[in-house]
Specification:
Length: about 500
């Protein structure tokens, strides 16, 4: 197999900056040794929302994990944005205004693309139902990305229905240390840069898996350290059959992908709840003779990575990670695995790697990133801080991807994006927030860069409210080479000018 290399010199400056960001957190990590009785995980729990979320909510009634009897637990999360993009019509006809209104806005809002920042959020609705007891429970998660009452047309792919469904057997009490087994269809996300979510970009840095199979997670105490293990093996319920015509109702499924399986193993060490080191290995492969005419070669996508998480109490929360992805004839690998939210080989081809003269997708991605979140009130007042007083929240975040490919038009490309957000909560019911993001799709080429500036007014019902209403204005600056998607299926269209001014009214609630 061909070996792919990246130019480490280009990444050293960024890695050094991330290490410097880690310094304040590492200095106080050892001071925060309080355990909450819950073992740390190497990936996000399947029940956590796919969209960025605040602190997990309290159990509804009695949590199944603490009950001897069978009980029902129910959680939910919704993010509903009303958005308006403004643009000028170049040559208005009689009866037409020169001002154009777009809903949704014409901006870079495809979460599967590298230029996605989440500044203009997409809708997300999620309902989690858990029924069981402290030994065994069943989880069903309903999710969607649209509300029918406000939809301009019926898009069945936006009403995802049952997104996850799995059985959990909790063997912790039987073995004396945290150990549980999941069996069923579930989402695995590794490299979540936020404290409770995938981070400001909603993108797991290591990888995401979408499979049906088994997952075993365990945590074994070793003095002040805890050994963490996460192992999984799964496939998919079905594959697009040969002859299927890609259409809106099937999310434009690609009949050229084969039945895909994912094997993964993650190991790590945690120091109390303060520091966690994770090592990750995932491989997704297909060897299916039902692909068209049996002529599509077997494909494989392999990921190896490492990350460090520091929960330093008053020193804030830090995540730093890196991974490398190898793609070998990856065009036949389905969305059972996602890299930077790109689903399988077809989207890796379209978004990063391109293909050779025969249509084969071969290449590599070196991905690195980090996020640092800090509460100034907690930093200053430490244990006196209760969360019911004014606060300034600061977040710094960034992701980079270096691409090597057999396709010369995609080879030797460095993609970068980073940002900064500051939030001032000065009243129990009101706050303000400013966010800056910059994206470069091709290294120093300023024509393929975009910048956004966002200002928000935040409204709550209390200091610890679980609901928020935000009024946001975002201004975009685009390089001449930036394109946005249009049409159906959505495709990058160089003839469409993106919106520069976007207004959003965003409602968020969780329980």
């Amino acid at each position: 197999m061909q070996t792919f290399h990246f130019k480490a010199r280009r990444c050293r400056t960024i890695v050094a900056a991330l290490v410097l960001c880690a310094a304040p957190a590492l200095a106080t990590a050892a001071d925060d040794k309080k355990d909450d009785g819950v073992a740390p995980r190497l990936g996000l729990d399947p029940g956590e929302p796919q969209a960025p979320s605040p602190t997990p909510s309290l159990p509804f009634g009695v949590s199944p994990a603490t009950s001897r009897e069978y009980v029902l637990d129910f959680h939910g999360y919704l993010l509903l944005p009303a958005q308006l993009g403004l643009h000028e019509r170049p040559n208005p006809m009689p009866g037409q205004s020169s001002l154009v209104l777009h809903a949704p806005p014409l901006v870079n809002s495809d979460i599967h693309q590298f230029d996605y920042t989440g500044v203009v959020p997409n809708p997300w609705l999620q309902l989690n139902f858990v029924y069981g007891n402290q030994l065994v429970s069943a989880t069903v998660i309903l999710a969607g990305t649209s509300a029918l009452d406000a939809a301009g047309y019926f898009d069945p792919t936006a009403q995802m229905g049952v997104n996850d469904a799995y059985i959990t057997v909790n063997l912790s009490r039987r073995f004396g240390f945290p150990l549980q087994v999941n069996v069923g269809a579930y989402t695995g996300r590794y490299g979540g840069m936020g404290m409770y979510d995938a981070g400001r970009y909603g993108t797991p840095l290591i990888a995401q898996t979408n499979t049906i199979g088994e997952e075993i997670t365990g945590a074994y105490p070793l003095g002040e350290l805890t050994l963490l293990i996460d192992q999984g093996l799964g496939g998919q319920l079905g594959r697009p059959p040969a002859g299927l015509v890609p259409a809106g109702w099937n999310d434009f499924a690609d009949p050229n992908v084969g039945a895909t399986f994912v094997n993964q193993f993650h190991a790590g060490l945690a120091y109390h709840r303060a520091v966690k080191l994770g090592l990750h290995y995932l491989t997704a492969w297909t060897q299916d003779d039902l692909t068209p005419a049996g002529t599509v070669p077997d494909g494989r996508i392999t990921v190896m990575g490492a990350d460090v998480t520091v929960n330093a109490g008053r020193g804030g929360h830090l995540y730093v990670g890196a991974q490398h992805t190898w793609a070998t004839n990856a065009q036949s690998v389905s969305g059972a695995i996602q890299i930077l939210n790109a689903r399988g080989g077809p989207e890796l081809r379209d978004n990063y790697l391109g293909h050779d003269a025969l249509g084969n997708v071969n290449g590599g991605l070196t991905i690195f990133g980090g996020q640092y979140d800090l509460s100034l009130a907690r930093l200053v007042y430490d244990k006196l801080y209760t969360g019911v007083s004014p606060d300034v929240l600061i977040s710094v975040f960034g992701v980079g991807a270096y691409v090597t490919s057999v396709d010369p038009t995609h080879n030797d490309v460095l993609k970068l994006k980073g940002g900064f957000e500051a939030t001032y909560l000065f009243l129990s019911w009101m706050g303000v927030s400013e966010r800056f993001d910059h994206v470069r799709l091709h290294g120093s080429d300023s024509t393929q860069a975009l910048t956004s500036l966002s200002s928000r007014l935040l409204f709550h019902t209390g200091w610890r409210s679980r609901g928020e209403v935000a009024l946001q204005y975002t201004y975009f600056v685009y390089g001449s080479g930036i394109e946005v998607e249009s049409g159906y299926p959505p495709m990058l269209d160089p003839n469409v000018n993106p919106d520069r001014n976007v207004f959003s009214l965003i409602g968020t609630f969780w329980w």
